[in-house]
Design the sequence.
C-alpha cells in the first residue's frame, strides 16, 4: 500500500509543477492500494480553505475518499505516544513525524515530494519513482 503525503495531493489539486506525474501515478495505481492519513485530510482542508478553494476539498473528499475508496489511516493513541520520539530521532517537524509513523506502523510505502524522509531507513518514493520506465 502507498501512503500518499499531503505534498503530493496538493501538487495535483492545485495543478502545480508535478501535477501530471502525480496524476499518472494515481491513474496506474488501484485506489485500494492508496492511503491518506487523517492528518493529511485535515491539512488539505486547512490549506485549500486558505486558498479559498473549499470546492476542491469537497470534490477531493467525494472523488478520492468516498467514491474511490482510498483508505484513510490513523494513528492510535498508542502510536501517538511514539510521535515525539520519532520527531526527535529523525529531526522531523510534527506533520512529517506523523506521516512517517503512520507509514511505518501500517506497512506502507511513503509517497512524498518531501526530501526529509530520505534521512530514514525506509526513505520515500516520488510518484515518478513508481511509474513504469
Sequence:
Amino acid at each position: 500500500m502507498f501512503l500518499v503525503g499531503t505534498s503530493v495531493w496538493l501538487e495535483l489539486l492545485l495543478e502545480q509543477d508535478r501535477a501530471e506525474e502525480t496524476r499518472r501515478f494515481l491513474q496506474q495505481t488501484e485506489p485500494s492500494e492508496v492511503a491518506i492519513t487523517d492528518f493529511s485530510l485535515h491539512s488539505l482542508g486547512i490549506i485549500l480553505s486558505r486558498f479559498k478553494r473549499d470546492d476542491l476539498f469537497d470534490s477531493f473528499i467525494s472523488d478520492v475518499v468516498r467514491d474511490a475508496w482510498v483508505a484513510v489511516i490513523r494513528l492510535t493513541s498508542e502510536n501517538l505516544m511514539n510521535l515525539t520520539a520519532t520527531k526527535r530521532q529523525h529531526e522531523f517537524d510534527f506533520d512529517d513525524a506523523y506521516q512517517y509513523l503512520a507509514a511505518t506502523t501500517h506497512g506502507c510505502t511513503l509517497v512524498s515530494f518531501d526530501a526529509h524522509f530520505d534521512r530514514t531507513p525506509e526513505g520515500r518514493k516520488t510518484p515518478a519513482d513508481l511509474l513504469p520506465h
The chain has a mean pLDDT of 94. The radius of gyration is 14 Å. The longest strand covers residues 34-37.
